[in-house]
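#data-curation
PF: Archiving a pair of folding outputs for the training set. Convention for this channel: one message per protein, sequence first, structure tokens after, nothing in between. First:
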Amino acid sequence: MTALERRLGTTMPPGYAEFMATYGEGSICDALYAWGPDRILESLDAARESWGESWFWEHPDLVPADFAAAVPVGASPSGDQVALVPGRGLVVLPRHSDDVIEVGTSYTDLVRWCTSGRLGAAHEVLWFESWAQQSCLENWSGGELDQVQDAIAGLALHVALDASRTDARTFLIPAMGGHVFVLRTSGDGDLYVHVRFEPEYVTPYARVAAALLAVGSTRDGRWGAEPTA
């Protein structure tokens, strides 16, 4: 952290070092990508160049010159950018809006804002998935929404259910180091299911896979790590 701040010439937000020490780099509620020091440094020059050449946001008193020393610290899955403006705090540069949004001065402020519903869906359950380990990732399709949800819930493997979106459910399953995300797609009523699990947790994963197959879902593909036999 000291090397990062020395390279940046500024201090990171309160709570950032503690968050990285506890959790590391990863995704918070699939709403905020929390970047580690290496990714921040790798993205620094390109971000500043982009802000200098393609600035279109507006703010009452923040101007493009303020971002010459700004630091990219994260992003959202939708392409919203998160930046630290030295002496000012953390801001969000939305992809689909031209307003600079100030979200606070601490990393906790950032997490709360990004999961509050002002960026996307509001999350009552906060969860984190690390990028440190290589996971097994699968996409499934088919089946009825209620049947699939009941099948996964019936396994009693999940410790929490994120129902922040009206069209989706995320079952958080530490027993397999991941989750099951169930989404009703628009239009023809098709169902999309995403499964993430760690390679060594094949037994609980096998129960999830069997439950999906039993209600008519089909595995469309797998990538990432391969399960450990």
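PF: Second:
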Amino acid sequence: MTRYEADYIARTDGASDHLWEPLWQIRTELRDAEIKILRSGALRRLHYIHHGGASRINTHHTFTRLQHTLGVFSLIAYYCPDQEALRAASLLHDIGHGPFSHSLEGIEGMDHHEWTRDRLEGPELSGILTEHGLNPEEIWAYINGERPSLLRNSSGVLHLDHLDSLVRSAQTGGYLSIRPKDLLDCLTVIDENMQTDKETAEQLVLLIAEEAVLHCSHANIGVNAVLRQIAGQWLSDVKPEMELVADMTDSMLEQQLLSYPPTSARMRALLMESSRIHVTRERDQAPAHALEAEIDKLYFSVPQVEGKKITDISERARRTIADLQHRKGKYFVYWQ
């Protein structure tokens, strides 16, 4: 068979016994359990959930939860090739995300952590895991950070879930200053934490800052606030079973919001006229009916250098993170 007769290299659906991840340029041989997980409905649904939520409406951030998941999995398999449970956890860490990812978090009943646990305990995934000697409880401990690992931790040290998001976002935005493949050569693992040199750590802090700027941008805040209002009304009026909402993709929810008369016009305007949405931090500059949006959390997990956080040894890194704190707080969103 010639290379022109072979199948496409970068498939996402578990049709092959290996996975090629194009951002990091990592080729991973897949275990039987991983192939079955990749083919499961729980994971396939993530290819129809946009990682950036509503910001895919008005920015280039159109990559999906599945693309991010495959990036994280490839990194885990690269650094921890023999940790079967951790590899499985990295494939499953985002399965609880509902339509539009984080955009609708905060609406009563929308809890991706709870939905993740529910899916792990459901017959499809629990059957795959137990068939291959994997413990769903151990998988859950990795996912929620109870068992610290390169996938997730609660220590404020950069882990691979966030690393993939930062690099993927920077690549999409066109401001990535280092090739992802070259970055791998600058990262090592010591005591379940990523370590690097000071220069690389400071570069990563700049990516962390850019991601925070994106989250606090008018482009991101505006469309997400409007979508949250529209979806909130539909949920309040229609009162669908939340289990059904949890299984929706972005397009499924879009169709509900477009076809429901009280939300149809606003949803169409959101999709087609997002440039009319304005955002301000000044209450007196916004009309009385403006929506309120609160940014109360930004992701500031930082890399380590010789066992110390870069913010403990670099004034530049410390100042970069400190300068972002003022972006937290209340914003006002309105149509013009």
